[in-house]
Amino acid sequence: MRHKIGAALVALGVAGVSLVATGSASSHGYTDSPISRQKLCANGTVSNCGNIQWEPQSVEGPKGFPAGGPADGRICSGGNGQFAQLDDPRGGSWPATRVTGGQSFTFRWQFTARHRTTDFKYYITKNGWNQSAPLTRAALDPQPFLTVPYNAQPPSTLSHQGTIPSGKTGKHLILAVWTVADTTNAFYACSDVQF
Fold first, then answer.
1. CA-CA distance, 54 to 56, in Å (whole number)?
2. How far apart are CA 186 and CA 195, in angstroms?
3. Which residue numbers delimit the Chitin-binding type-4 domain (predicted)?
4. Judging by DSSP bridges, how do beta strands 29-33 and 104-111 pair with one another?
5. Number of structural domains, the chain?
6. Would you tell me which of 9, 69, 101, 146 could form a disulfide with 122, CB atoms 3.0–4.6 Å apart?
7. What's residue 15's pLDDT?
């Protein structure tokens, strides 16, 4: 009888640890407007994405971008090796959202864990950036084109109204950074756009 009780307690302990582990892995957020690379993988529009297809909300890395954060070439994956497919430019074949410089645009985040937030920042690549290489800080305009301070816990969906930068042509990449206040991390989302 003791052996059965002991085995049952061990099984419950393993199940509890598994539940905690999967609960934290399925948390956080991503952008779906403009549609991010991780969302394109999750909804099946893009294939051969690896683990990100099941965890579009998990592109989490160190905060402090651009002074800190993920290393150059690993920005779209948040520096997370299991999501390295997001850093691959795929020869420019990522589907792109059509935008026009100067247009008003609604940027939208979806959250599966609603962390207390410091801010949201949106960066865009410079004209002439190297589209065939993974994203680097040097490829981005040095200042975000939109910063949204947000000293609160967001709802499950949050939209920001902003203006798409003028003077851009061709294909670009928008990097959205959600800086979390209650952890040492931020969440990263790369969205391909076409002017």
1. 6
2. 28
3. 28-193
4. antiparallel
5. 1
6. 146
7. 37
Structural domain span for residue 78: 28-194
- CA 180, CA 72: separation in Å to the nearest integer? 21
Q: What is the CATH number of the domain that holds 59?
A: 2.70.50.50
Beta-bridge mates of residue 98: 194
Computed from CA positions of residues 55, 110, 88, 48, in that sequence, does the dihedral angle turn out positive or negative?
positive
Show the tokens assigned to 75.
């920005």
The β-bridge partners of 177 are 121, 188
Which residues of the chain are modeled with pLDDT < 70?
1-27
Quick one: DSSP state of residue 88?
Answer: -
Residues recorded for the chain? 195
Residue 163 lies in a domain: yes
* Helix/strand/coil for 131: coil
Q: Would residue 3 count as lying in a domain? A: no
Tokens of 84: 């390295």
Question: Are the C-beta atoms of residues 125 and 172 closer than 8 Å to each other?
Answer: yes
Q: Residues 62, 75: contact at Cβ < 8 Å?
A: no
- CA 106 centroid distance within chain: 17
pLDDT at 182: 87
